[in-house]
UniProtKB/TrEMBL annotation:
GO terms for molecular function: beta-lactamase activity. This is Beta-lactamase class A catalytic domain-containing protein. Residues 105-361 form the Beta-lactamase class A catalytic domain. Pfam families: Beta-lactamase2 (PF13354). GO terms for biological process: beta-lactam antibiotic catabolic process; response to antibiotic. Coiled coil: none annotated. InterPro entries: Beta-lactam/transpept-like, Beta-lactam_cat, Beta-lactam_class-A. It comes from Deinococcus ruber.
Length: 395
């Protein structure tokens, strides 16, 4: 029976676990999600010899001169919605469209480093449209999906145009479409675009299949799976040349990784004893809420695109997840979310009916809710909470 929302507690290998049912959708079957209840051991059952560490702090980044300082900028307090867990960092800012400087802010640990998940796809789109303007790509240029370049999750097989891939990467957050586009524009051009804004701690050097292959331990030639934490540290701490070289090799080598094998190996990493949140932010594309807000401001308000490509960017981003229940009360709401194991990110730009612009970045890592589909259920709650912050900033 489909009893979505029902919960059962049982003992499994000495731990309390929670089983939550998720309803069937058009693309997903009815599911039961299993989460270990942190810190709980059922009486009478022996605990395992070792346990995973609890939530650890996100890395704190140093001051970045290229990103606007909000010291002294008027602010509104932030109180998180009930039900979220783990590390949450957040920034929302009213943006002056001429200077791109924040004039009013809401802040919660905005300089903490977080993995980006799918929120990086909006920056890939920006780079692709700049390539279209430069004549390096065309919107009708076609690319084929192959066993080598496809990534995890659902995708459309066959040939698609750049425009079709762009729509899929934002409106459906299709990993394969975003990966194909990132290879077309090249990770180096995406990173150059980001660096040109002035950020210091944002790295977008790998498509999804590449960074998941690293985390899954399937690229041992550069990243020893026996000590993945140490092997992947240069992706975060190395100089620019080192990080780019390692990323290029991962991007190339991941094309040889079989997707079913990747799915199994990544699931084993996420749910196994080898999982370490440090590996998430070392390997995956990463940023801070402060730098993401700055990048969003540039991507919408000073993107260097021709009028037609600028219109396309705004149009595509308006199809992204997620918009609040009261979307109709705003002149525009563009968004891109990202979910992964224990991770939920929500980013976007809002234009109010009186012409104010608000950029926001909500980043939640190490959530006690691990399963991606279970995290999806938090999106409406958090998006409506963000809308409330937007309202307080603009009234």
């Amino acid at each position: 029976m489909d009893t979505a929302g029902a919960q059962i507690r049982v003992g499994v290998s000495g731990h309390a676990v929670k089983l939550s049912t998720l309803p069937a959708t058009g693309t997903q079957p009815f599911r039961v999600v299993v989460d270990v209840v942190s810190g709980r051991v059922i009486s009478g059952l022996s605990a395992p010899s070792a346990t995973k560490p609890g939530v650890i702090p996100q890395p704190a980044t140093s001051f970045c001169a290229g990103v606007p300082d909000t010291s002294g900028v008027p602010s509104v307090p932030v109180t998180l919605p009930a039900g979220v867990s783990g590390n949450v960092s957040f920034m929302a800012a009213v943006i002056d469209p001429l200077t791109l400087r924040p004039t009013r802010v809401a802040l919660l640990n905005p300089d903490a480093l977080h993995p980006m998940a799918s929120t990086f796809k909006q920056l890939v789109l920006w780079s692709v449209l700049r390539d279209v303007d430069a004549g390096r790509l065309t919107l009708q240029q076609t690319f084929s999906t192959t066993p080598q370049n496809r990534s995890l999750e659902s995708y459309t097989p066959g040939e698609r145009t750049v425009l079709q891939l762009a729509k899929a990467s934002i409106s459906h957050s299709e990993n394969t479409a975003a990966d194909i586009l990132m290879r077309a524009t090249t990770p180096d051009r995406v990173q150059d675009l980001i660096d040109g804004v002035g950020t210091c701690h944002t790295s977008v050097l790998m498509p999804t299949k590449a960074y998941w292959s690293v985390k899954a331990g399937l690229l041992p030639q550069d990243f020893d799976p026996a000590d993945l934490l140490a092997a992947t540290a240069p992706l975060l701490n190395g100089d620019d040349a080192t990080r780019r070289t390692l990323a290029r090799r991962a991007v190339a080598d991941s094309l040889q990784v079989d997707v079913p094998r990747l799915r199994a190996a990544l699931d084993a990493f996420d749910t196994g004893r080898a999982y370490d949140p440090n590996i998430d932010w070392q390997v995956e594309n990463h940023t801070t809420p402060r730098e993401m807000v700055d990048l969003i401001s540039y991507a919408y308000l000073r993107n260097g695109l021709s009028p037609s490509q600028n219109t396309l960017y705004w149009t595509l981003m308006s199809s992204g997840c997620c918009q609040p229940d009261r979307k109709a009360s705003y002149a525009y709401w563009g968004a891109k979310s990202g979910t992964d194991w224990g991770l939920l990110n929500l980013t976007g730009l809002v234009r109010t009916r009186d012409g104010q612009y608000v950029a926001y970045a909500y980043m939640n890592h190490q959530s006690q809710v691990h399963d991606v589909l279970a995290l999806q259920r938090q999106k409406p709650l958090v998006t409506n909470w963000i809308a409330g912050v937007v309202d307080r900033l603009t009234h």
